[in-house]
Design brief:
Blueprint: E1 12-17, H1 33-49, E2 63-73, E3 82-92, E4 96-105, E5 111-123, E6 128-129, H2 134-143, E7 148-149
């Protein structure tokens, strides 16, 4: 399977070295670990763009729920491989937005995994989705050149 995402579309990246506790008895990175890499990359992305709530997730009256997570495994990663996780927001709707990720082995230059995820902006007390603030759109639009705005008027 060939990667379907274009690396030049990604500005943000997060580097990781595979540690011993991330490999399984087959000596490859356990499949669930890739989701942890995606999560860490999303957090670093949010911090870099200033979209992580200043009081912390859930402490400013809103939070984000992960409602979808997908991955395509293309090649195995091994102990001590140096990986780069590229991250971008590809679209924004009224109360949700989509992330895309690709993971590249830095030594070989091979894309080993790609994935997507959807987060929803939620009122933690009411447990209902709420509109993303205009400031969120502006921060993403100022950083991402190919983000789709899909909010209804």
């Amino acid at each position: 399977m060939r990667p379907t995402k274009n690396k030049p579309d990604f500005k943000h990246f997060y580097d990781v070295v595979v540690t011993f506790d991330k490999v399984d008895m087959l000596h490859i990175v356990n499949n669930a670990v890739y989701f942890n890499y995606f999560e860490q990359a999303r957090i670093q992305y949010a911090k870099a763009l200033g979209i992580l709530p200043t009081k912390g997730i859930g402490l400013n009256g809103t939070t984000f729920y992960m409602v979808r997570n997908e991955i395509n495994y293309l090649k195995a990663a091994l102990f001590e491989d140096r990986l780069r996780v590229f991250t971008r927001i590809s679209y924004i709707k009224n109360s949700s937005f989509g992330f895309e990720h690709i993971i590249e082995n830095l030594d070989s230059g091979i894309i080993i995994a790609e994935g997507t995820g959807v987060l929803v902006h939620v009122n933690p007390i009411l447990k209902k989705s709420i509109a993303l603030p205009e400031e969120f759109y502006q921060k993403i639009l100022s950083y991402e050149s190919k983000v789709e705005i899909l909010k209804s008027v």
